[in-house]
Amino acid sequence: MTSNKHDFEELDAPAAAAEKLGISVATLRKYSLIVEKVTGNKDYFERSKQRARLYHKKDIDDLDAFHNLSKKDGLTLEEAARQIYAVSDKKETDKKRQAEAKPKNELMDSHQVAKLLGALQNTIASQNEAIDNLQKQLNRIEKQNHDLLERQKQLEAPKDVDDEIAALPDISGIVAEDDEKQETQDDKRKKVLEDKKKSEEELHDEIINKAKENAKKRASANVHRTLEDMQLHPAKKHWWQRLF
């Protein structure tokens, strides 16, 4: 058995240990495998550089007790080993359950690692973009607050009239005349616009009325001219006829 004994303790090779136990090397190897199975420790016994088992004095004593117990009471080799090495089925079952309960650390392959890194980089980029947007909004709000404060200061400040502006001549009359001229021009523009707004029907009616009026005037003039032509005018006499 592996122990904390000093290195100078003598260890027996399989042949020497089998001779002390009075069994063959093959039987010793069989017993050793059963002990390793029952204890659940493949390195229960010391090993040489060539991986051959080495046995302490206590190991030989335990194997001797195991050999003698296996010949009594009809016990199997594993049952005898459990009694000697104080390993019960319950402890073995608990050990298996604990091993099954341990989380399995599964290693990710390179593709999964790259995918995870890409997702993390995208998340970081999104967070940085959100931070930049928030900073821009904060700067804009600060500027608006600054402008509002400046306007408020200007409104609260007293309005001083400049002496040079106060000394300027009064031009209210000139401005009034210009306003009147402007109003006259505006009236003309309005009239032109009103004339343009006349509908085509009104223009048509006006043209028809003018035509009828002109026709009546021409008819009246023709009648007077005809009566005048119907009157008999005295025959004209030559100058020599007027002497007689």
What's the short story on this structure?
With 244 residues, the chain is mostly helical. The chain has helices at 14-21, 25-39, 57-70, 77-84, 89-101, 110-156, 163-166, 172-196, 200-230; strands spanning 46-47, 53-54.
Relevant terms:
coiled coil, 2 strands, 9 helices, 244 residues, Multidrug-efflux Transporter Regulator, Chain: A, Domain 2, mainly alpha
* CA-based shape: rod-shaped
Low-confidence stretches: none
Rounded to an integer, what's the Rg over CA atoms?
67 Å
Question: Biggest sheet: strands, sense, closure?
Answer: 2 strands, antiparallel
Helix content: 55-70%
Can you tell me the CATH topology of the domain at 14-101? Multidrug-efflux Transporter Regulator, Chain: A, Domain 2
CATH architecture of the domain at 14-101: Orthogonal Bundle
SS class: mainly alpha
Count all strands and give the number: 2
Region (Disordered): 88-107, 173-204
Keywords: Coiled coil
Organism: Lactobacillus hamsteri DSM 5661 = JCM 6256
Biased composition (Basic and acidic residues): 182-204
